[in-house]
């Protein structure tokens, strides 16, 4: 049990991220009360059943009343409308945050609606799975992962939000919004678009190869399909709202891909081997940074025995 | 304990695949004796220490003497030289197989060297990890995965090899070599090149973003780095020996990627959402086919607790 950090937290949107936050806050007593709102009645019901929140409200406006922390956990493209709706109902002195995967456009969408006396501290937990919806959250999601804050100014409300994310299990860093968007374009947004594309190509080819693409799905492709199973609306919004950085990285990607394709075509084995040797080193760095585990085949063999028979 | 399927198996190359075969064959008594050869003395020593084989030989020629099954477990580009070396030493009636990730070029490289009275049954176990070398094998590697045979003719030697792969834990299918190479270009070879490329782009950008690309490594990229940590020599050989199919698939990939980039640039949210919805369905297919497990974040949270503290 940690100490209570906020007296009342309102989660707007009750999917993977909000659900994981709510479960952990309630388990560890980080909030006096956790109130939630989601668009559909079904999501609100599941959220109550699973105990993601103490209480649900039919509107976002109701949910934020009296809350000292409001966290927007909806797709990036829905932030504008939600901010507009809640603005008149926010308690004076409240902190508004979000968990959107893009920061510059969310700041532009949300910031102007918020009244004076309300503190806006945008955040992005670098933690997720390919699952979404109110069934998908779990309290350990943020354990050992980073949460990036992109505050517009310093202040005690930034410290306090950082304390919450620490209590949720995360390391916290502060970053400029534009820099955040560039780094994430590299580490997350471009890789997702690439995975979606490759799976799309395979889907077209199924007419040629029947179900073989699925049946003989090997390591590379199998991982791509998992990435490409992520929520379509969330990712549509990420790309539309981090357009410049994503297109910039994809441009560089295509350039490099063409260079490697040329090496294959001309039989330049040395270029290929050197390139692959260089990329291998990066993996070492990620393992050393503790952002992944290194067991054969990700322990799938073990897991399959343990969970799927 | 299964019944002995071959009296003496010779494994040429003692890395991930051969090591996993040897451990399983010895554990389950599938071979009277397992003999091995690898290029370097160090690999041969580790192989003996880990019990991958019963006995090692200093040359491939020695290792194949008296063997009724010889399996070539070296990189695809090394198959030609190995076949040339062993050919005069093969026992009459022996079966020669391989585990190369490419089939047409291996058949072209190996087939012509083999004497009459020796049966060539090419094979490819669709199972692997990003690890390589004699330390990396484990007996469950092939469990529940497919092994594709691309035999040049029917016969009891094909049945017998299929029995061995079944005993190693695999499902077995027979396929045309060219078709194999196309399917694998989609499910494995193109995805690997794409992952290598994306990690290479990120590596270039590290000068811009310092170690942030590693530190904040998110789901998409983290998976790419694992794929791009695979053995450089093995993959160089795969691309050089499955050139046409790989380039064909990469061509289609680039076309699709450009279409998605255009949708991002023009803000065509409907196109993006529809595309991502379509690719999501493929994941379902793979889970249904039993070729992956579906636990949050691949059970990394569980594994981290269990293995890495
Ligand atoms: N998933 C990840 O890997 C990840 C990681 C870090 C950050 N994020 C960010 O976190 C946010 C939420 O993602 P998530 O994965 O938790 O999503 P999710 O599981 O799909 O949940 C989204 C929630 O938002 C609600 N919602 C959707 N559209 C709405 C709208 N137009 N107005 C009001 N509510 C709406 C949904 O309500 P209904 O269920 O009632 O429709 C649902 O409760 C996104 O901004 C995303 O970029 C995601
Ligand atoms: N890894 C996978 O995911 C996977 C999956 C299915 C099929 N395959 C195929 O299986 C084969 C072996 O892959 P692997 O992952 O087991 O590789 P690995 O772990 O790197 O082992 C390769 C072995 O081949 C030996 N070798 C390398 N070059 C040689 C040469 N020029 N002449 C003689 N021996 C040589 C090495 O000996 P030293 O250690 O002494 O150098 C080593 O014992 C490849 O054809 C690959 O395409 C791999």
UniProtKB/TrEMBL annotation, chains A, B:
Residues 7-294 form the Prephenate/arogenate dehydrogenase domain. It comes from the Bacteria. Pathway: Amino-acid biosynthesis; L-tyrosine biosynthesis; (4-hydroxyphenyl)pyruvate from prephenate (NAD(+) route): step 1/1. It holds the Pfam family PDH_C. The keyword Acyltransferase does not apply. Its EC number is 1.3.1.12. Keywords: Amino-acid biosynthesis, Aromatic amino acid biosynthesis, NAD, Oxidoreductase, Tyrosine biosynthesis. One of its GO terms (molecular function) is prephenate dehydrogenase (NADP+) activity. GO terms for biological process: tyrosine biosynthetic process. It catalyses: prephenate + NAD(+) = 3-(4-hydroxyphenyl)pyruvate + CO2 + NADH. InterPro entries: 6-PGluconate_DH-like_C_sf, NAD(P)-bd_dom_sf, PDH_C, PDH_N, Preph/Arog_dehydrog, Prephen_DH. The keyword Repressor does not apply. Belongs to the prephenate/arogenate dehydrogenase family. This is prephenate dehydrogenase. It comes from Jannaschia aquimarina. The lineage of its organism: Bacteria, Pseudomonadati, Pseudomonadota, Alphaproteobacteria, Rhodobacterales.
């Amino acid at each position: 049990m940690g100490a209570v950090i906020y007296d009342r937290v309102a989660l707007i949107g009750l999917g993977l991220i909000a659900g994981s936050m709510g479960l952990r806050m309630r388990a560890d007593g980080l909030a006096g009360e956790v109130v939630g709102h989601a668009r559909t009645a079904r999501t609100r019901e599941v959220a109550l059943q699973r105990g993601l929140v103490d209480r649900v409200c039919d509107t976002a406006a109701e949910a934020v009343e009296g809350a000292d922390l409001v966290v927007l956990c909806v797709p990036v493209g829905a932030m504008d409308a939600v901010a507009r709706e809640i603005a008149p109902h926010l308690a004076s002195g409240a902190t508004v945050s979000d968990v959107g995967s893009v920061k510059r456009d969310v700041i532009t969408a949300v910031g102007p609606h918020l009244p004076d006396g309300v503190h806006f501290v945008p955040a992005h937990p670098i933690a997720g799975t390919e699952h979404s919806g109110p069934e998908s959250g779990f309290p350990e999601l943020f354990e050992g992962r980073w949460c990036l804050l992109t505050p517009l100014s310093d202040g005690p409300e930034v410290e306090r939000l950082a304390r919450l994310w620490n209590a949720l299990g995360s390391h916290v860093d502060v970053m400029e919004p534009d820099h955040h968007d560039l780094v994430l374009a590299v580490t997350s947004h471009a890789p997702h678009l690439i995975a979606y594309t490759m799976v799309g190509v395979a889907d077209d080819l199924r007419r040629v190869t029947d179900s073989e693409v699925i049946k003989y799905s090997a390591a590379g492709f199998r991982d791509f399909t998992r990435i490409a199973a992520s929520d379509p609306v969330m990712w549509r919004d990420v790309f539309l709202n981090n357009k410049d950085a994503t297109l910039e990285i994809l441009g560089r990607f295509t350039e490099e891909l063409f260079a490697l394709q040329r090496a294959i075509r001309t039989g330049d084995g040395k270029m290929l081997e050197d390139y692959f040797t260089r990329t291998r080193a990066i993996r070492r760095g990620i393992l050393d940074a503790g952002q992944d585990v290194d067991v054969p085949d990700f322990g799938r063999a073990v897991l399959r025995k343990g969970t799927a028979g």
